[in-house]
Amino acid sequence: MTYQPFWFDSAINEEAAAPFHLLPQGHHTDVCIIGGGFTGLWTAINIKQQHPTKKVTIIEQGLCGQGASGRNGGAMLTWSTKLPSLIKLVGLDNALFLVKQSELAVHEISAFTKEQGIDCDCRIDGCFYTASNRAQLGLLDNALDCLDQFKLNSWQKCTAEQLLQTGSKQNLHAHFSAHGGSIQPAKLVRGLKRVAQQMGVDVIEHCRYKQHHGHEPINVTTNQGALVCNTLIFAVNAWLPTLQSQFSRSVVLVSSDMIITKPIPDVLEQLKLNHGSAIIDSRTFVNYYRSTSDGRLMLGKGGNFFSYGNKVHPKFDQPSHYKKLLNSSLAHFFKGHELPIERTWTGPSDRSATGFPFFGHLNAHPHVLYAGGYSGNGIVQSYLGAKILSAMVLNNNPQWQHCGLVNQPLKQFPIEPIRTAGAYIVRNAIRRKELAEDLNLQPHKIDCYLDKLSGSAAKVDTQSLR
C-alpha cells in the first residue's frame, strides 16, 4: 500500500511485515492512551521509565505515525522565540522553565534515538530564523531582547558567511541557534512504537475509540471491543474536537502543506544545504525548509486549508491542493535551480488561540486527561507534553503538573460559519500583504490591519513583553 505523506510511506516501506496485535478480550490496563503519535508514545515511554510495573496500553485508529506526527515537516523547534507570549500566558518562572526545557529536549530526543537505535535521520545541526524580505528585518528583535533580559538568549546574528548556510540569497538576514535540527518524523514514531513495545506497552493499531464511561474504573468501547482502565488519556491532537465536542472552538484545524524533491545532492551542495539545520522565515504563515541525509529538499508552508467545523477532512490524506503555492515558495528561495518533485502532501495542525498546547482533566474527571493545541510545533513540544501527562498520571512532578499549561481556561474561537469565513478573509489578506512585501511594495492598510488579527499564528513574537 502507498501512503500519500512521503515520510510515513518511506518509514513503512522499510519495516518488515509483522502481524497486528488485536485487543485481547476482557483487557484491563492501568493507563489507556488514545493516539499512537508522538504524544501518546512519549507518554507511554515516560510512564514505563518511571514506573515499569504500570500496565500501559495505546490504542490507535490507524497505524502509529499515520496521523499528524508522521507527516509534519520534521523541524525541531523550541519555544525560545515565543518567550514574551509564554510569559504572559504562564508567568515568568514557568515560561523560563519551559523555554529551557524545550532547548534541552532537542538534545534529549537525539540522545534517546541513539541509545535506542532509532534510525530517523536525526541531525542536531541547529536552526535558522531568517528575514526573506525587507519587511521581515527586525521582527525577531523583541523576542531576542526578552531572552537577553533573562540571560536565556542562545541565538546569534549570522555573518555573511553563515547566512550562506541558509541556502538562499533571498534570505537577507538570519539568526542561528544550536538548539534545533531536523528529523524524519515517521521513522521516529515507528521507532518509538518499537521501543514502547519492548518496554511492555501494549500497542493496538486499527483500534478506534468510540466512547467511555465510568469513574473508577473507566470502561472504554472501541471497534475491536471493550477494555477497562484506571486512567484514560486523549493524545489525539487534531482529532480531539471530533472525539470531544467541547473542544470544537478551542482550536482551528488548518493544513500545513509540504513538497519534497527527488534526491538532488549536487544541487544541495551548490546551495550549501548539505546539513540538517531547519530554516524558517519570519512571515506569519512561514516558509520552512530542510534537507535530508539522502539528498532531498523539503519545503513546507502553513496556513492554507481551514477545515469547516474542525472536522478531519479527507483533503488531509490527499496530495496538497496548494502545489502551485509550494512551487512558488521553492522558486522564491531557489530561483534558477532545477528541483524535480517527488511528492506533495498535507497534514492537520490544531492551532490554539494562544499558539501553545493545553493539557488538563476532561470534564474535571481526575483520571481522564487530554492534550491538544500544539499549533504546528509538534516534535519537541510533544516530548514536553509527555512529561506533563506522565507527571499528571503518576502525580510525581509538581513542576510539570503546575507549569501553567495544565487546566488553563481555554480561549475560544468564534462559532461557525464565522470562524472559517473569518479565517479565510484573514489568510487571504496575509497572502496579499506578504506578496507585496516580497515584491518590495507597500501592502494595503486593510491587509496590514487584518494581518494583526492572526494573533499567535507566527512562530516568532513580534510584540514586546510590555
From TrEMBL:
Residues 30-391 form the FAD dependent oxidoreductase domain. Transmembrane segments: none annotated. Keywords: Oxidoreductase. It holds the Pfam family DAO. This is FAD dependent oxidoreductase domain-containing protein. It comes from Pseudoalteromonas aliena SW19.
